[in-house]
Amino acid sequence: PKGKKGPQGKRITLKVAKNAVRVAFNGRRRLDLSKMGIATFPKCILELADVEELDLSRNMLKKIPNIIEKFQNLMWLDLHSNQLDELPAAIGTLRNLTYLNLCNNKLKSLPEELTLLRSLRTLNLGLNCLETIPTTLGTLRELIELGLFDNALTIIPKSVKKLPKLEKLNVKRNPLPEFAEEEEPIDTVKRIESLYLVEKKDLCSSCLQTCEGEREELHKLEDMTPGPSNKPSFPSLVTPNSTARDNEEEWRMK
What we know:
Elements: H1 14-19, E1 21-23, E2 29-32, E3 53-55, E4 76-78, E5 99-101, E6 122-124, E7 145-147, H2 158-161, E8 168-170, H3 205-224, H4 242-251
Parallel strand pairs: 2-3, 3-4, 4-5, 5-6, 6-7, 7-8
Antiparallel strand pairs: 1-2
Protein name: LRC18 protein
Domain Disease resistance R13L4/SHOC-2-like LRR: 91-222
Pfam family, one: LRR_1
């Protein structure tokens, strides 16, 4: 229809919202509206504003209205994987929050009111468009985990680095000078994958000829080697799936 702007998303009714309330393992009541195709914050959930946990992740939300301040009991708020480009000032009124996940949005800046959340222990701001973060983020002295990966940050304030309880600070894939990696040297040496030790007398003529050819190759490699090394070194060797585990941790901080 004429005048339609963008996706309308799924309409959430109060009945749908009530059926989405669950009791978490910690005994808190969680309103789980994740992966519901929501494009607009459903005002009907104000009737359930006494929940302790709210999950609106993996939707199409572009804005969180100031009425979020009605959820004064919130301790856990998950807004990851939406289309948010800003946060309301009212976010600072949720003083009981200990967990806030804003990962994978389009945030370009943070409101100063975010620093009023003095009970926060986990804050995930990864996968956004942040070029700076306020130095006042250093007032969140209860922070244990802070995710800033995959942004456009060129500096991390000292006040943030020196947070007294901070155990995990993830700043990977930001253009930070102190984390610039040196280019790895190109290894031009051919590696031998297998080595067989047998006595010469036990070899047939064709095998002996093959071994002599391999021995000549080894002599050539010795001439190309710049200097002797007592022990082989494999600095780039990693355990299987270690990279996959690291990436999985970054996407959702628990």
